[in-house]
């Protein structure tokens, strides 16, 4: 498997440390610059295994990932909209917590924050659609089964954490705490995973 993964650029929710999850929050100016920079990084990789147009390009269908993908492709000299989306790549849902900071949640539900800190990977916030990282990782397993050729993917921080768990064998609670930059490109080559 050969997979390059980019986290979407910064949003105002990221800047404010708000849980955005499956909410459709647009990029801010910093995020647009990060996406453009990641496109230049890809275009400048001397060790790239194939010409960029020969990769399968896929993004989460949320607006921030689609905008990131289009800026990445434009900066790499490609037609911005020539890619596909996959629902399996949507960020995990934080349920009722979406739109709030953890500090705001703690003010109302400190016991839930305590539960989350004791086992972040398996913790599921309240709300009908809410997911745990473990649930997200099962979705990512299904996505990985579809990767049949070299692929460039734009997704979310939670998705990248799940990839570190699944490919890099980072234990769940540790993977859930990894800081995922928005201005770097992650390379997965077989069982190897790391930033380029």
TrEMBL record:
Return the Pfam families for the record.
Answer: His_Phos_1
Binding of substrate, residues: 7-14, 64
Active site per database record: 8, 91
Task: Report one GO cellular component.
Answer: cytoplasm
What SUPFAM superfamilies does the record point to?
Phosphoglycerate mutase-like
Q: Name one GO molecular function term.
A: phosphatase activity
Q: What is this protein called?
A: Phosphoglycerate mutase
Give the species this sequence originates from.
Answer: Hoeflea olei
């Amino acid at each position: 498997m050969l997979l390059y993964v980019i986290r979407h650029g910064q949003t105002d929710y990221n800047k404010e440390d708000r849980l955005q999850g499956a909410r459709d929050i647009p990029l801010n100016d910093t995020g647009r610059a990060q996406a453009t920079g990641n496109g230049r990084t890809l275009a400048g990789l001397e060790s790239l295994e194939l010409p960029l147009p020969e990769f399968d390009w896929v993004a989460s269908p949320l607006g921030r990932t689609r905008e990131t993908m289009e800026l990445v492709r434009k900066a790499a000299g490609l037609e911005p909209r020539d890619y596909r989306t996959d629902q399996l790549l949507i960020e995990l849902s934080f349920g009722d917590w979406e739109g709030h900071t953890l500090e705001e949640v703690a003010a109302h539900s400190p016991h839930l924050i305590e539960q989350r800190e004791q086992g972040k990977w398996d913790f599921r916030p309240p709300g009908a659609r809410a997911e745990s990282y473990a649930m997200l990782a099962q979705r990512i397993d299904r996505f990985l089964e579809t990767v049949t050729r070299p692929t460039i993917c734009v997704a979310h921080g939670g998705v990248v954490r799940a990839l570190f768990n699944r490919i890099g064998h980072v234990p769940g609670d540790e993977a859930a705490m990894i800081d995922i930059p928005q201005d770097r490109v992650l390379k997965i080559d077989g069982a190897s995973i790391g930033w380029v």
